[in-house]
Design a protein that fits this description.
mainly alpha, two-stranded antiparallel sheet, 11 helices, globular, protease
Amino acid sequence: MGGLTGSIAAVYWLLALSVVSLWWPPLGGRVPAWPVLLAATIAVACGAGFVAPTGVAALLMLAAFCHVRQRSGSTVARALLLTAIIVLALALALHKVPGFANPLLLQGVQVSPGAAPVTQYLNVDKAAVGILLCAYFCAPGRRRADWCALRPAWPIVLATPVVVLAGALLSGTVALDPKLPPFTPLFLVTNLLFTCVAEEAFFRGVVQGGLLHALAGKRHGPAVAIGVASVLFGIAHAGGGVAMIVLATLAGIGYGLAAWRSGRIEAAILTHFLVNALRFLLVTYPLLVQA
C-alpha cells in the first residue's frame, strides 16, 4: 500500500472511505455519509485530472435516476428508470463513458509463472457506480441484526470458494501457485472495495433483486432470479474464454445463493471476495496462458 503517492493516494483513500461509509450510521443521525465522501472524492479526482466534467455529469445523471426511481410510485416510470440505470451503470463500469482517466496502480506485473502480466487501475467510474447502486438497491447493514442475518449463509460462503477453485484446477486454466507478493494488500483492498462491491451491487442487488421482486410468489422465482444473474455474471467474464464463463457462472450461483439465503448483499460481497482472494493467493493468477 506504500506505493500510492500524491493525488492517486488521496483519491484512492477517499474512494475507499466512500465505499466503507455505506455501512456507517448517518452523520448527525440524518445525513448519509457516503454522498459527502463521494462528492469529496470526485472533487479531488477532478482536480487531479482523473475525472472530467462529462464524467461528473454521467455520475450525477445516474444518481438522479436512482433517486427519482426510489421515490416514484409509477410502475411504468420505475421500469423505464431501471432500464436507464442498468444501461448507464454498465456503460460507466465498462469504461465506455468519456470523462475518466483512471490512474494505474499496477502495470505489467507478473503474478504467476505461465500467466499473462497483470495491470490494475483505480477505476473511479466503476467504484462510483458500485457506491450508488449499493446505496439505492442493497440497503447496506448498519445494525447488529443485519450482520447476524448472515449466519444462515455461512455454509455457502465457505463452500463456494472450494467448489470454484476445485473447478478451476480441474479445468486446467490454473495450477497450484501459493504466493504472497509485496503488492498483495493493495491488490486485495482494491478488489474488495472497488470490484466486489460494484459487481455484487449490480448483479445481485439490481439484477437478482429486481427479478426476485418481479417473481415474488412464483414457485421457481428464486431459482430463475439466481440463475439469470449468474449467467449474466458469467457472460461478463467472457474475455477469459469458455472455461472462465462457466467458472464465473458457478461462482455467481454461490454469490446469489448467499445473498438470497441471508437476504443481505454483504454475504454475496464476502463470498465473492473470498473466491477472488484465494484465487490470487493459491493458484495461477489470472489464468495460464494457453499455447
